[in-house]
Amino acid sequence: MDFMDFMFYYIVFLTCLIFLLAFYFAVKADAIKRKLETQELQRKLAEAETEEWREKMLDKVKEKIAMTEEARDRMTRGEDLVAKYIYHQQGIEELSTELFSIYQKPINSVKKKYPDLTELDLLVICLLGIGMDNVEVCSILRMEKRTLYRRRQLIAQRIGLNSSTNLEEFAKNILQETLPEA
Question: Are the C-beta atoms of residues 124 and 107 closer than 8 Å to each other?
Fold first, then answer.
């Protein structure tokens, strides 16, 4: 092996080493970023377990459901449902069953129009439709933020929206479409 061959292999070795180090540090930085995001979400979820947060959740449900006669009935049922779920840690199945009964007509309409949506997709649509934000939905469903974002993307894709940011508007419109005129 002459000097030129040695230099060639040495440069190839150094180049590979540099790429491996760059890859290692990129992966490590991404892991640190994910860990910080997870810690922030855990902090928010721990904060969400306080009595004050539960009261805010109940107030938010009251504000988000329209005040027509039918909506007043829905509000009371929705308030009771969220209170039962938050205070007594009822299962997600019970939460979805009761929410689906409150919003039976719009949910059936969505199911018929978009048969690829899962029960969890419909539950996320309901929670977004009554005005819950991402942290609240994560807390209620005991789901990580990244999991919820991915779920939102899948829902948007399944219903043909350009982005998951339009999902809240879609959800609010779908739940309000069957309310009687005030």
Answer: no
- 162 or 115: whose pLDDT is higher? 115
CA-to-CA distance for 174 and 35, rounded, in angstroms?
Answer: 36
Choose among 104, 95, 114, 75: nearest CA to 178: 104
Q: CA of 154: how far to CAs of 110, 120, 122, 150, 159, in Å?
A: 15, 11, 12, 6, 9
- pLDDT (tens digit per residue) in 66-123: 444 565 565 566 656 665 665 555 567 777 787 888 888 888 989 999 999 998 899 8
Model pTM? 0.54
What is d(CA 59, CA 55) in angstroms, rounded to the nearest whole number? 6
Question: Collapsing DSSP states into helix, strand and coil, what is residue 177?
Answer: coil
Write out the two tokens for 163.
């982005």
- Report d(CA 79, CA 66) in Å as an integer: 13
Q: DSSP secondary-structure letter at 162?
A: S
For 28-96, give the secondary structure using H, E and C: HHHHHHHHHHHHHHHHHHHHHCCHHHHHHHHHHHHHHCCCCHHHHHHHHHHHHHHHHHHHHCCCHHHHH
pLDDT digits (tens, 9 = 90+) for 43-64: 777 776 666 776 777 666 666 5
